[in-house]
Design brief:
about 500 residues; alpha+beta; D-Maltodextrin-Binding Protein, domain 2; Dipeptide-binding Protein, domain 1; 10-stranded mixed β-sheet; 4-stranded antiparallel β-sheet; ABC transporter substrate-binding protein; SBP_5_dom
Length: about 500
Amino acid sequence: MLLGTFAGSALADARPDLTVAVAKNPVRLDPMAENSNVNARVMKNVLETLIYTDSQNDGALKPGLAESWQRLDGRTLALKLRAGVQCHNGEPFDAEDVAYSLGPKRFLGEQAPGWGIGSQYFGELEQVEVVDSHTVHIRFKEDDPLLELRFANWMSEMVCKDAFEAAGSWENWLKHPVGTGPYRLAEVKYGDYIKLEAFDGYWGGTPPAKSVTFKEVPETSARIAGLKTGEYQIATELTPDQFSLLQDDPDTAIAGGPVQSIRVVIYDESHPQLKDPKIRQALSYAIDRQLIADALYDGRASVPNGLQMKAFGDLYIEDHRSIGYDPDKARQLLKEAGYKGEEISYRYLQDYYTGEVSTAEILADMWRQVGINVKLELKENWAQIEDAPEGRGIFNWSNNAEYPDPLGQIYRLYGPDGWFQRNHTYQSEAFNNWGEQLKSSDKAKRVEAARQILDIYERLDPPGTYLHTLPMFYGVRTSLEWIPSDTPYMDLSSRMLRFKG
């Protein structure tokens, strides 16, 4: 673990300013308003979780805003809050803030503004009881095998009650959330940059940077050029074919690798040409995933065994048999479905995901080779991808394992509370029924449920298909030492960042 400490406030002005060149920034800054990789990258430096997941220690759970926790029963978690934690507005952080963060003004209940996104993470949450100023009991409606994990990962970030109420409205709050993290929001200029400033009242140690600016630089070449000149200290979303430009320069280096996420493409079954599952199956069989991983990532990304992560431990289905690459099978399915070459749109963005444009072009060519007529449509933003009354066709996504369990990945995303069913791109009663079994405390039932939903996802009624593990590569100035996490979060606290000299 890297430590960046400073003698005191007298040295604050001597700390460097850090500029991170990114392809895209979030628009709505509370996680419960925008569930995206780019939001996690920025806002987890501002908002913190009750329990800390240590990515440098195999995801071990450690004290965060809570100094300790214990299960009172299968559905109730008691947490003792850390003393002396301060919000960015100067107010103390206590149990009332926890209750407010998860309560009806922000999350709990279908009328709450954060319910639509947050429910896929906390849909069974029943109540938060304030026991005293530093103790809370969080209770779910049913026994939950993942109680601790739910408060150690994305979407469980705590906010400060007084600041939320002072904002006056949800829309005002989204422009300037207030939390307890090492940095606080200083300035936001949408489409240009988000600037954070060091919060020297941070309980976890003095932040190493005086400020952090996430600067939107859509073109990869411009991010690399700015990194080489020193205008930027970190550049995101690089691909291996660009590494030599930085590795040959003594002032720059490469960092990062695959994170706990899988790149996928989504099939919208409401699209006229994708209603028949055989056509969706054909799309999946036509993809040579290993070729994409090798061509674009030079061995630094792998093809998973279905939509699952080895980090799932006992819930990882080792003997699952993925469909693989079978273009003849794809052609056969298209024939059985009566497909006549009707056009299917494929919507994508300008490298929101690493190598997204190149991946789209390769996929379109693979599909054409088996007779699928795909129209590539490059869009400017997510709204243009999601706004499609006649069906979105094919579009890109990533499936993060927000906690190491199928409930934190495949069922969270494709189940009844996930984005796809809520937005009517996918419906499956069988998938939902097996997914409910995943919530059981019986290990054998959970393993069988995981096996069944993998088969539904991949073979029987696919809502999309996986491609490869999602890599996140960064260019970094050698004047700093920074350890990337295994998530989209860029931890720029003293835990992970130190400036040399």
